[in-house]
Amino acid sequence: MKNCTKLFGTIALMAIIGFSFTACGGGDDDGGGGGGDGSLGATLTITNAQVYNLTDEGKVGTPYNGTIENLNHTRDFTIDKVPIKPLGDLISGSPSVTLISGKLSISLGTPKSTALMDGDDFAGEGVTISTSGAKYFALDWGFYDGTGDSASNWVFQMMENSKNHYGAVYYIYVDKNIKITGTFVDVDEEDDDGEYTTKTVYKMDLKTGWNSVIVEETATGKDSSTFTMKTAKPTANHKWVITDME
């Protein structure tokens, strides 16, 4: 599963923005079955979504009312260093992301063949896939206003609910239907405090075109945690937020 660390860099993402997680009871982490309905069709379209400021504690803050120019860059997961690139390098047609007076609008069509990755890389180590040969594109770290190390603003979609529990929304394009199910266990033996075990539970029923994938984390102990990745539609608890990368 060599590409999984590129696609699902959840732990790194959460560390970057300083999230602190708490256990969320009632979770299902057995890996059985596929996810819910996250299918969005051939085009990823979001219109006038309110953006919020991200607080220093990593929480949803006050509504953002500014305008950001050139918010049309994202990560390229086909490259090990995962650089920030213009959307036009990765998406065909005329991809567009605008943030005007605090309102975010997105229109993305089909990813270019050079931006697609091999879905077969998910198979093995406790994870099964339903369809061999599927290709995917991962838009899971949101949008930036510049390339490389020059980006100063980052807009992404996260979840915060009354339990002070956090998660994120990933958007994934696939060129054919594919189900990814099972549990992948990773033991980091190089952690400064000793071993740290991370379980990633996949419950993804991806349909041809764009899909939304919800990720949530459950702290299962001082040295372990479980991430659940499942196809589903975002709810009112999932907010677009903006943070300064500088």
Topology:
Layout: H1 4-7, H2 10-17, E1 39-41, E2 44-54, E3 60-63, E4 73-75, E5 84-86, E6 96-100, E7 103-108, E8 117-118, E9 127-129, E10 135-139, E11 143-144, E12 153-160, E13 166-174, E14 178-188, E15 196-206, E16 209-221, E17 224-231, E18 238-244
Parallel strand pairs: 2-18, 15-17
Antiparallel strand pairs: 1-16, 2-3, 2-7, 4-5, 6-7, 8-10, 9-14, 10-13, 11-12, 12-13, 12-18, 13-16, 14-15, 16-17
Summarize the structure.
The chain has helices at 4-7, 10-17, and strands spanning 39-41, 44-54, 60-63, 73-75, 84-86, 96-100, 103-108, 117-118, 127-129, 135-139, 143-144, 153-160, 166-174, 178-188, 196-206, 209-221, 224-231, 238-244. The chain has 246 residues and is mostly beta strands. It has a 16-stranded mixed β-sheet that branches. Strands 4-5 form a two-stranded antiparallel ribbon.
Describe the overall structure.
This protein has 246 residues and is mainly beta. The protein has two helices and 18 strands. The chain has helices at residues 4-7, 10-17, and strands at residues 39-41, 44-54, 60-63, 73-75, 84-86, 96-100, 103-108, 117-118, 127-129, 135-139, 143-144, 153-160, 166-174, 178-188, 196-206, 209-221, 224-231, 238-244. It has a 16-stranded mixed sheet that branches. The chain is globular, with a radius of gyration of 17 Å.
